[in-house]
């Protein structure tokens, strides 16, 4: 597998609900949230090699190589495993920065999962998730690859099976810093904790939505528009908002109503990550070639 060029999806995610249930003494927030993947995202083309170096393309303006989450993930796996191999990684960037749909975290996770396979480092899923958590709070859900109910500060993951609906995801032209939302004095921080079964059977909401709509007029405008057509809400603390539909055609009909100036896409919810579906195919092909 060294020198083989491979292609890996780096999918988006949605927080189908997000509730803030408390605040710890260290300032971190206790939460309950439900992650689901989308069949839409970035792509990484990875060629493993024997150089020991990690090279990336294209360059991201203003982001030094050593600050790039993809590079950090690759180096962390090298250090964890003692691997002497290297890789060239090319990113086809589709997901917006600061959109709340997991772009950078997903890129880091795809790097970990792909290189663990290509380098044959045999790091366990739990250890990959542990490496990922040091890179970002959302990275473990992408490395593990199943839709998940998250508790604690987001690190306690339980597999979940929400309905795989169709979504229209709209990206208002703003970038939102998570810290600005979580430090806002009017953020709800005392939503009662509930069981996953109760939450799955309730109407979904997002405790951050009120603050984001108050601070960002463009998010409020797009969400108000979507709510005319379907149940809609904010994902995470980012700027993306989404509407849920039972069919692709209904989602695409609503997409067609949006002006061309608005950035949006239609995608299917997935309880198994497209990344892990691709990994299974590569593993099967590798087994058959032996």
From TrEMBL:
Catalysed reactions, as listed in the record: 4-CDP-2-C-methyl-D-erythritol + ATP = 4-CDP-2-C-methyl-D-erythritol 2-phosphate + ADP + H(+)
Major enzyme class: transferase
Recorded coiled-coil stretches: none
Recorded GO MF terms: 4-(cytidine 5'-diphospho)-2-C-methyl-D-erythritol kinase activity; ATP binding
A Pfam family annotated for this UniProt entry: GHMP_kinases_N
EC number: 2.7.1.148
Function: Catalyzes the phosphorylation of the position 2 hydroxy group of 4-diphosphocytidyl-2C-methyl-D-erythritol.
The keyword Kinase belongs to this UniProt entry's keyword annotation: yes
Xref: Gene3D superfamilies: 3.30.230.10, GHMP kinase, C-terminal domain (3.30.70.890)
BP terms from Gene Ontology: isopentenyl diphosphate biosynthetic process, methylerythritol 4-phosphate pathway; terpenoid biosynthetic process
Native species: Vibrio ouci
Active site positions: 13, 138
Residue positions binding ATP: 96-106
Domain GHMP kinase C-terminal: 194-260
Keywords: ATP-binding, Isoprene biosynthesis, Kinase, Nucleotide-binding, Transferase
Alphabetized InterPro entries for the sequence: GHMP_kinase_C_dom, GHMP_kinase_C_sf, GHMP_kinase_N_dom, IspE, Ribosomal_Su5_D2-typ_SF, Ribsml_uS5_D2-typ_fold_subgr
The UniProt record lists the keyword Kinase: yes
Pathway: Isoprenoid biosynthesis; isopentenyl diphosphate biosynthesis via DXP pathway; isopentenyl diphosphate from 1-deoxy-D-xylulose 5-phosphate: step 3/6
Family affiliation: Belongs to the GHMP kinase family. IspE subfamily.
This protein's name: 4-diphosphocytidyl-2-C-methyl-D-erythritol kinase
Domain GHMP kinase N-terminal: 68-145
């Amino acid at each position: 597998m060294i020198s083989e060029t491979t292609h890996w999806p780096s999918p988006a995610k949605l927080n189908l609900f997000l509730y803030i249930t408390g605040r710890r003494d260290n300032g971190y927030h206790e939460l309950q949230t439900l992650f689901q993947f989308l069949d839409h995202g970035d792509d990484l083309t990875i060629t493993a090699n024997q150089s020991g170096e990690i090279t990336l393309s294209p360059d991201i303006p203003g982001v030094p190589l050593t600050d790039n989450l993809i590079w950090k993930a690759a180096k962390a796996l090298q250090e964890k495993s003692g691997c002497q191999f290297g890789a060239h990684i090319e990113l086809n960037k589709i997901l917006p920065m600061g959109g709340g749909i997991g772009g950078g975290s997903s890129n880091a996770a795809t790097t970990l999962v792909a290189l663990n396979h290509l380098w044959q480092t045999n790091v366990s899923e739990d250890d990959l998730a542990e490496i990922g958590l040091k890179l970002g709070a959302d990275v473990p859900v992408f490395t593990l690859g199943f839709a998940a109910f998250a508790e604690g500060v987001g690190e306690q993951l339980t597999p979940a099976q929400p309905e795989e609906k169709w979504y229209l995801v709209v990206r208002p032209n703003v970038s939102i810093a998570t810290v600005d939302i979580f430090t806002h004095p009017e953020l709800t921080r005392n939503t009662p904790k509930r069981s996953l079964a109760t939450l799955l059977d309730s109407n979904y909401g997002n405790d951050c939505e009120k603050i984001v709509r108050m601070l960002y007029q463009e998010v409020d405008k797009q969400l108000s528009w979507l709510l005319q057509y379907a149940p809609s809400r904010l994902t995470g603390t980012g700027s993306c908002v989404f509407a849920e539909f039972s069919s692709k055609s209904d989602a695409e009909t609503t997409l067609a109503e949006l002006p061309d100036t608005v950035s949006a896409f239609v995608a299917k919810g997935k309880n198994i990550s497209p990344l892990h579906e691709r990994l299974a195919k590569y593993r099967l092909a590798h087994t058959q070639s032996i």
